[in-house]
Amino acid sequence: DVALIQQGLLAILLRVARWHRRRVATVQSAPAGLKHVHRLFEAEVDRRFRDHLPLAEYARRLGYSESSLNRASRLATGQSAKVLLDRRLAMEAARMLVHSQASVSEIAHGLGFSESTNFVRFFARMVGATPNKFRVRYFAPMAKDDLDTSTVVGA
Fold first, then answer.
1. Which residue pairs, CB below 8 angstroms and at least 24 apart, start in 26-32?
2. Which of 87, 89, 84, 93 shows the shortest CA–CA distance to 134?
3. pLDDT in tens, 20-56
4. Contact, 131 vs 107, CB < 8 A?
5. Which residues of the chain have pLDDT under 50?
6. How distant, in Å, are the alpha carbons of 22, 29, 38, 57 from that of 32?
């Protein structure tokens, strides 16, 4: 009788240990899985950010729910997926403002904004300055350096 009870308890303990091991493995692999989801999301955003797709469309294309994209984004960056979408678009806008001679209107349309006024509002909200002020602030230190003759040999 005692041996039979011991074997039964041992079998139960083994089942609990296996269940616990699987559960721990699942929890430990979740961050890696979410990091993978985030990398997929970032790659898709890099390909499609000019299309102004809603988060639901990114989720559909990747085969995940919006909440999974948000969870993955928050884990990887501490920010929501929507914030990442907006930041990617603002980063590209800033890059274009600095590295091209295109007008604000041309950049707005190139980034998929139907109206340049919407772009100006979006950029100001994201960056804290209008596109024109951003350009002026970016190039002002360079222009000042260009005019500074104290560093020129022989001046």
1. 31/75
2. 93
3. 565 445 434 447 788 889 899 999 999 999 898 999 9
4. yes
5. 23-24, 26-30, 147-155
6. 16, 5, 10, 23
**C-beta of residue 3 within 8 angstroms of C-beta of residue 11:** no
Contacts of 60-64 with C-beta under 8 Å, sequence gap 24+, read 62/37, 64/37
Longest dimension (CA), the chain: 104
Torsion of CA 113, 117, 121, 122, to 10 degrees: 0
DSSP assignment of 79-113:
S-HHHHHHHHHHHHHHHHHHH----HHHHHHHTT-
